[in-house]
User: Fold this.
Amino acid sequence: SVAVYYAQRSEWYWTSTTQDAECASDGGRPVPVFFLGDAAGCTDYWRGQSGGRGLLAGSALAGMLAQLGVADAKAAFQDYWDDVVASEFNQGSEIMYRPSNQYKYRVEGRKLELTDGSEVELHGEIGFQEYLRHGGLKQ
Assistant:
């Protein structure tokens, strides 16, 4: 006989992305902690996507901290995460095939050869529309 073991594929996420923690080296003063990537939520069936989600979240958070400061960035980052949860969790594995998610995690910001042979670097909503107009990536 052969023993077979498996890992259940599923998803999970925290509803809150920030919390204050006591910093022992600073006399117990509360320090904000932000949760990103797998620390905030994971979709196991979408191979490697939690890491990509974490990198994009880290980039978004860095911009928020630079523009807003820590106190306001906490609320702004929570809003960002709420949008991610609404659009990417509890959707089933078909989210992997949505053009908007393919673009967000695999295309945006890269220089690509489109199906018509042209090369373009795609950014934002205009880049996404260009990506769709050309029928996606060359296979």
About this structure: The first helix runs from residue 49 to 88. The mean pLDDT is 81.
